[in-house]
Write the structure tokens for this entry.
Amino acid sequence: MATRIIVSYDDTDNDRDALALGRLLAFNGAELSLAYVRHSQGGALEQKEAEDLLARGAESVGAPEMPRHVVVNPGTSVGLAELAESENADVIVFGSEYRTALGTVKPGIPAHKLLLGGPAAIAVSPAGLRDNPSVSVNTIGLIEEGDSAARQTADGLAAALGANVVEHGSGHVDMLVVGSRPESPVGKVTLSAAADYAVETATHPVLVVARETPISFAAQPQAV
């Protein structure tokens, strides 16, 4: 089954960064989709506006047929978690918080909430990634947290990209893969204090892997 990646998208610059990161992670045949969470039932007009917003996002990257989801939930993080579970998603991608300095990572409130027990891996883009669509990943940093899932994910991503994996703190990296803390329930994301600090001070895309749930970046077989 293809890796499934959901991008949280609201047509702001920061979520255009998220879409850029989603496309980077979906390079090898993953299923990429966009999701927008409405906070009230509203009416047909509000639904249409949400659908148009997502359509603009898909068209902006030349993929007008990209799957799109409008979710109604008072909480963005709850709505995205429920969508991820219903879609069997492997990764939810976020942009950084509004007004984050270019080239740095700062998870917003919905991302933070899903880093405290979310049901899928969480990826966060640095601000401004949208302006560097040809970014290359040559070195992947790893914070393993004693979980082989993070190592397997980093190694698979490196093999697919032709990159190498180094321990976090060993020098410059182009992406950071982080494991969940040892006491996290299987299939859930939870950061240790040290890992949370590493995420908050990152200057490159970050991917936090759910406990004992490696993500495959192998090329997907083509339908015949």
Q: What stands out?
A: The two ends are 15 Å apart (CA to CA).
